[in-house]
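Field: sequence (string)
Field: structure_tokens (string)

Example rows 1 and 2, in order.
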Amino acid sequence: MEMELQEMLAELHMQNDKEKTLQTLTVCKHAFFDLTYISPVVFLYLLKECYIHGTCKATKKFRALQQQVHLVLQNSPPCGPAVFVVQCLYVLPTFGLYSEGFSHLIISALRRFLKVAATSEDLAEAKMLAAQLFLDIVGSSVNHDEGVVVKILETFDVQLPNIEKVMCPLKEKDDYSFDSAKRFVEQYIYDLIDCQSYMNAVTLLEHFSIRQSGESFLDTMMRKNEFKAAEKWATFMGKPLLCVLVKAYIDRNMLNNAYQTIKQNNLRQEFPDVYHKCKESSLKKLAEKGCWDVAEARTNNNRQLLEYLVYLAMEAGYIEKVDELCERYSLEGFLSAKVPEASLLHSRYLNLNEFFVEDIIWVDDAEALHNATSHIEGCKVVGIDCEWKPNYVKGSKPNKVSIMQIASDKKVFILDLIKLFEDVPDIMDDCLTRIMQSPRVLKLGYNFQCDIKQLAHSYEDLQCFKQYEMLLDIQNVFKEPRGGLSGLAMKILGAGLNKTRRNSNWEQRPLTPNQLEYAALDAVVLVHIFGHVRNHSQTASDAEGLEKFEWKSYIVSHMDKLKKPKKQNKRELEANRKTG
């Protein structure tokens, strides 16, 4: 097989493993047909020239050269591919800065090659040469980084008998002891530990099956925060040391690490309380994010965890979720003992009644949409938000936006976008275009660029979400508060928003009263935050955190005229489809 180095075609894996892209790399002009007459020095020199003259970024060049070395190893080196690589590793230290990177490159290329085209004779000879290389590196005759040493021993599967044979070539064949090799390797590993190269040390202890210095070594790694090395060592040593590791995590209050170790090594019976506590902590975090369906799945039908999830829903005031879980898992008897005080459910969050909203109007037909549009066009300021059903399937597209909330200070209109698009798409497009493009109505949103993008993707056939005017994204004005819109409401209005229903099923019809209140509140609170700050900012002191409210400069419009698209080739069209 001819190795062409003038123009190298590198197959680079994209996100979809089935799709591959060919990329041309411009390199210096030389080529060789096979490895029969190519020495390791010449091969490495040409490899360096390829890297130096390559025109793409370092990572892509590395992958391209790795692929090319993998192919060229099939070009019949006279000593065999594995032996040839060992010979290259002997030479590489003379290449200075390129030594470590090229060492990893050719070793990784050989690993790929050995999976499909290994020969026992070549491997047997290479293993002994690699053992000798290891001795030469430790003896400072050859200079290689310890990471490269570990890769050499693993790739060529160098074991203590191989090292013993190289160290004592005149040893009797029936003498199966390898004390000299073991002492030599152990001393090298101790040197790695002294240099705090713990992961390499652990890797070699595991590779050579050397079991010693259990708890004291583990404790040293934990004190040095070398947790990955400690986990690898404990896993190799077995359950007793894994239990010590879990206890060490608990003592450091690293409950998630303890939980993962318990889960991965089947230690639930040894640490039932810790396992359960970590599961509860995980459920609580999911509930706080509003990911109730994911939290329910994570209970794995464990009644104790389900009861805890019900309690979290009750604590958050998510009554319909409480009813849903109790009915599905027959938990009715649990309710009377765990109900939190009603005052606690309302004192922490804003309530729609506080804003004296006169009406929440559901809009799902043409007449209601026309009436809503007329009212909104007469307002100076409205708040806009939208909701869609969450999709927890990794890699799948988001669900279509289900509802859009548009609120004035007294009324909230909730538009059933799915039904309107099915029944009256032209009227929906016309009415929402009038609202979104009105220069007289200031439209408030929170992170609304995300919403408008999702709306445009959900309803690609409509023009109403592709252009807008007089849009003020409150998030851009107030950049400091954490906790999203709820955190901003807490700062400005003194209480946050209950976000437990954020990820509920927004495609169900009818929506529950609590869902309607949640949706309405998200839109109307924008109007009141804006009004509160605009009216009070000029008299508020800096100490109160309400400096002069500069907002006009943050108003944005997107009114680009629709241009006739230029003719695109097939590659451009595909690229646009992927990034659109």
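Row 2 begins here:
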Amino acid sequence: MTAQKGVDGKEVAKHNSRENGVWIVVHGKVYDVTDFLDEHPGGAEIILRYAGMDATEEYEPIHPPDAIIDNLDPSKHLGPLIPSTLPPPPVSASAPPPTSVSIPQKTNEPLAGGEEEYAKPPLEEILSLHDFEAVARRTMGKRGWNYYSSGADDEITMRENHNAYHRVWFRPRILRNVGTVDYSSTILGHKTSMPVYITATALGKLGHPEGEVTLTRAAGKHNVIQMIPTLASCSFDEMVDAAIPNQVQFLQLYVNADRSRTKKIIKHAAERGVKALFITVDAPQLGRREKDMRTKFVGNASSQQTQGGDNFKRDQGAARAISSFIDPSLNWNDLAELKEAAGEMKVILKGVQCWEDAVMAAEYGCDGVVLSNHGGRQLDFAPSPLTILPQVVSILKQRGYMTPSRPFEVFIDGGVRRATDVLKAIALGATAVGIGRPMIYAMSTFGEEGVSRAFEILKDEFEMNMRLIGAPTLADVVPNMVDISSLNAASGGITMYEENYERMLPVGVKARL
């Protein structure tokens, strides 16, 4: 193949409008995107803003690296940019329009105007998962923070997910040999260092330039399972390629109205060795996340939408921008088709919120459920997963499930910030617990080292607390080790979680640091 001739930057700069044609530079290569303007899922405006210029800085955080190559005809790939030939952009072009918020790069923008300068603490001073959240709140860009931290409506359910753990008390046992403590576990037949997995959270590059592969690498080092999100900033293959040999990964799936695309995703996941398919079933429509909706979303959102060419609303926040393709007609009758497509992969329903649906999932041949309300981001006043866990486990066992002959696993997610939270869920019958936001905050604030630090904190907490409750192994963490008599009582007072929760303030009032 003949090497492409270099393109002079001065020529690129001339192609800066619809009339003159639109060329952009991404990763040192020049592309003619004139004919793609009106097909771009994020709209033509964002491309035109970078017409005749280098668009890499805007492109990189919210697109998989091959998105532009996959979506443009090869004839529109004009060749490499000749170094140092591109004129500097006009001053006005480098600033985003007043209605948008630019994605944080190496130096993150402040959350809101006027806060005092914040000095990020060194990683060794981070002592809990709460600390990552506190630092993220002060250092992340507004668009990423609003997307990650927002909940539905009044965010009651989001806070209750965590507060429910405060109403379960331990009943420690004494004089047990806890000289050696083993908190390793098995999830869907796969060994893992602890009963925790990284649950799927979209748009990783809103928090860190490398995105979700940062989570992949840290998970591999600590033998923790990562659930790959459908709506990741990185491509699926990037995350699989970043895994170490024999690293276990699951896939979270939003079912597309175009079922052929869904089947293609499932088939590819199976071919790449993904072990389980977690089908999200609590999102026929994305919830109203008002904090997120206050931030206009600019540009493409996710790998899947980039590849699929979906259109979406950019003026209602990131969540609604990335959800246009989700099929609201998904129902129980569709499970057989999805299970057939999954082949040898285990199939789990993610987003079950009552015991009746957990039983139906078992009856329809699923391998388990995740009790989840989408991190409090869908239906406000949906129950905390922990509050329904005892009833779900009890009724499943009454129906003959969760036994060696009829295996069925129950997971929960939402609100987990301590190993003690995980141990309470294990005692009440959960196989493992998904952790989402804390891992994203660890990644956003300290990168891969931050995620590793989060795992180390959890391991230290597991060892200490299993000794203190008298449980040398997870098999010893049983229902009579916890008191749930107050589980459905009213919530208590302020916690560090409450301190991290950001409330709406009157105009002119600064957030308290």
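free_text_note (row 2): The first strand starts at residue 16 and ends at 17.
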